[in-house]
Amino acid sequence: MAKVTLVGVRKIYQEGGRTRVAVDGVDLAVRDGEFVVLVGPSGCGKSTTLRMIAGLESISAGEVHIGDRVVNDVAAKDRNIAMVFQNYALYPHMTVFENMAFGLKLRGMAASDIDARVREAAELLRIGGLLDRKPRHLSGGEQQRVALGRALVRKPDVFLFDEPLSNLDAKLRVQMRREIARLHHELGATMLYVTHDQAEAMTLGDRIVVLNGGRVQQIDTPLDVYRAPRNTFVAGFIGSPAMNLVEGTVASEDGALAFHATGGAFSLLLPPRWRQTLAARDGRAIFLGIRPEDVRAATEADTGVRMRVDLVEPLGQELLVTARLGEHEVIARLPPAAAAQPGQDITLGFVPDALHFFDAETRERIS
Question: Are 145 and 179 in contact (CB under 8 A)?
């Protein structure tokens, strides 16, 4: 296995006389054996970054290292990487065994070694009984396992995954996510994984890289990204539902500090620990952020905010309640027995120790 390092990597396209920067100065160090997930919305540059590591896209600037070798000018076939695509790309006329063995045959490997590798990978992926079948006789999950097996038999330095589960239904996605996590645990392999699905990012990655507009927004462990998003983009992208963001200002009042939502919709007294950090921002625009699970039906200890319920989504173990006051919308995770009906008013409280604040101009976290 090998580490992967990106230093100032850029990808620039010339389209109809116009310049488009798809990846803009990405720096990333993936440790040997680490599982790193690139996550972001469509068009953020995550797949392009992966394809530059694989050698399927040229690099406009910067360097890509695999192990101790700069691979900018190394052909894809000579990088000793294996890539699993969104499209399984299996040969329909070949059996599962032949699909998994094809790359090894091209390398001129001995038939006995090929047989051993394919059967070893098939047992690891639990498809040992499917080796004589053609792809058309396999389910989507089974075809994805074959694609994984084809990568596995190569014993590469680095595994690259480009949205490999996006063609599967919800149940199979969860199942295959577990399989990939199990493989990483058993193999200890270096893996880079691209997805737009934050559940995959949060559950698979040792670290996640949040991208937007070709730029890295944050690199951290999944829980640290969730608990301490670096800016409003990360706060609004990571989490399902995303963090609530309410624009307003802070003001000192009788020795206390209060947040006033834009338009005078509501006010919140802030915990004392925020006074020193936010006092210098008196009167300046900021965003208050709070996760839906930290919004609750108001208790006597809360400064309640009376809002009108727009939508109630029963999910069995909880209710997702969307409420509105003026121009502000807040989503709360409430117990299934909570009294909330569309069109009715509800008083919501914000857990004081779970508040986040962001500068309205830079969109950066205020720590």
Answer: yes
